[in-house]
Amino acid sequence: MNWIPVKQLPLDRDLTELSRFLHQRGLVHRITDEGQHQEIWVQDPAMVDPLGELTDRWLKGEVELPEGEQPRRTMPKGPSPRQFPATVVLLLLSAAGALIGMQILGGALVPYLTFQPVGMGFNGPEFGDWGEAMASGEFWRLLTPAFLHFSMFHILFNGLWIWELGRRLEAVLGPWRYLLFVVVTAIAANLGQFLAGPSVFGGMSGVVYALIGYLWMRQRFNPHPMLAVPPGIIGFMLVWLVICMTGIVDKFIGGSVANGAHLGGLVAGVVWGILSSGRRVS
Fold this sequence. Notes:
There is one protein chain. The chain is mostly helical. The chain has two domains: 4-59, Alpha-Beta Plaits (2-Layer Sandwich); 81-276, Rhomboid-like (Rhomboid-like fold), CATH 1.20.1540. 51% of the residues lie in helices and 9% in strands. The strands form two sheets. Strands 1-3-2 form a three-stranded antiparallel β-sheet. A hairpin with a 4-residue loop joins β2 (29-33) and β3 (38-42). α8 packs parallel to α11. The longest helix is centred in the middle third of the chain and has 22 residues, at 152-173.
């Protein structure tokens, strides 16, 4: 079912009270950031005019929305995957990357999806020249490592966060702007890991940290009801980043955590969040 625009409102208008009221009454809706304004959307055509009229009266102070029980979360209960097509596509690509990375769907494809060409020698992985790969037009390598996953825990952990956090951003930005965010921050994360030294790496965790950085800055400087997450989640992920950077986690996973990708994604998300909040950076 398609989303139908109801009304445009200024970016600085706090719609938390209105959104909470609509959620409490079971009205499926979303509020998106369109750059210069916010926009309210619904799926039921019959609700366009009534909601537009209610919003006008609420803005003029002619109607006071009754207070009710505070919702436990700002996202609608039981969201349908069809409402978040971009997030579903990312999860499917990550699942395919996991089947490849775990050598279930053809491990021979891995060297073609890594950030730089790689082959196995007598002493371990032998890395090709990344510059030559780019000169040959292998630009997909900038992005594809984000979809590679090398264990069931790896894909489940990242997939859970992409679903929980990514659909929030898709609801606000729309699928195409959300996909642009993912592509740009995934490349930034992959570059961060590449600069940390040659390695065979993969996973959406860099994008997860980009989402954390974006939500952290956006909610600090320009809050949006659909992007509200408990501060404890942000704190936990930042603490986890520091713990991983100490090298302790590497001793328990039989490999190495892609700390460069985490840090690169976080920085990209923070920058995107600050810029999209309208805050001037001096």
